[in-house]
Write a structure and sequence with these properties.
The chain is α+β, with helices and mostly antiparallel strands. The protein has two domains: 75 residues, OB fold (Dihydrolipoamide Acetyltransferase, E2P) (Beta Barrel); 118 residues, de novo design (two linked rop proteins) (Up-down Bundle). Helix content is 39%, strand content 22%. The protein is built from five helices and five strands. Strands 3-2-1-4-5 form a five-stranded antiparallel beta sheet. β4 and β5 form a beta hairpin. α1 runs antiparallel to α2, α1 packs antiparallel against α5 and α4 runs antiparallel to α5.
C-alpha cells in the first residue's frame, strides 16, 4: 500500500520514545491508523493536533504492523485549542469520529460534514454559529453507521440545540461508544456543560 491523501487528523498518541500513532480520516480511504516517526518531536508536535488538515503519505507494511505515515500540515486548527469551548467541540468530534468509525471504509459524506463543522467552529464568533452543525454531524454519523432515524428538528435556539444534543447523546452512548469506548463520552460532557453555560 502506498497512498497520498488529504486527511483530517483525528487523534494522536505517543508510541515509543519518539514516535506517535495517528488516526486519519480521508474522504476516499476512510479511517486509517498509522505510525509517524518523530511524531513527538518539536517539528511534528504542532502538526499532530486533532482537527488539523494534513497531506499524508502512507506506506504499507506487513499486515500485522501499522503502516508508516509522513505528514505535512495543510491547515492548522491549533489556535482553537486556546479557547475552551471551541477546543472542547473540536476534541469531542474528533474523538467521537476516531472511536466510532471502522477502519478502511470510506465515508465521503462524513468527511465533508466533519470538514465543514471544523471550519464553522474555527470561524464562527460563538457556539451559536456551529451548534446546529454539531447536531447535524452527530445525526449524520449515526445514520451513516446504520443507527439513523429522523434527524433532529432544526432550530436557531441554543436551548433547542442542547435538547437535541441530549437525545443524540443517549443514542451515541448506546450504539457507538458502548463498552471500552465509553470513556470518550467524557469529552462530550465537558462540551455540553460549557454550552449550557451560554444559556
Amino acid at each position: 500500500m502506498a497512498l497520498r491523501i488529504a486527511a483530517i487528523l483525528l487523534a494522536s498518541r505517543p508510541q515509543g520514545e519518539t514516535g506517535a500513532i495517528v488516526r486519519l480520516l480521508g474522504a476516499e480511504t476512510g479511517l486509517i491508523a498509522a505510525y509517524v516517526a518523530g511524531g513527538r518531536g518539536r517539528q511534528l508536535r504542532p502538526v499532530l493536533v486533532p482537527g488539523n488538515r494534513v497531506a499524508a503519505e502512507i506506506a504499507g507494511r506487513p499486515e500485522s504492523q501499522l503502516p508508516f505515515a509522513r505528514l505535512e500540515l495543510s491547515q492548522s486548527r491549533a489556535a482553537l485549542m486556546t479557547e475552551p469551548l471551541p477546543a472542547a467541540a473540536l476534541q469531542w468530534v474528533c474523538a467521537l469520529t476516531a472511536a466510532a468509525l471502522p477502519e478502511r471504509q470510506p465515508y465521503p459524506a462524513l468527511f465533508a460534514a466533519l470538514e465543514a463543522l471544523l471550519e464553522a467552529i474555527a470561524v464562527a464568533p460563538s457556539a451559536r454559529g456551529w451548534a446546529q452543525g454539531l447536531v447535524a454531524y452527530e445525526a449524520l454519523l449515526l445514520a451513516e453507521l446504520g443507527y439513523g432515524g429522523a434527524p433532529p428538528p432544526e432550530s436557531s435556539e441554543l436551548s433547542d440545540q442542547l435538547a437535541a444534543l441530549a437525545v443524540l447523546e443517549r443514542r451515541i452512548a448506546h450504539y457507538l461508544l458502548a463498552g471500552a469506548k465509553r470513556d470518550v463520552m467524557g469529552a462530550r460532557r465537558l462540551l455540553t456543560e460549557r454550552l449550557a453555560r451560554m444559556i
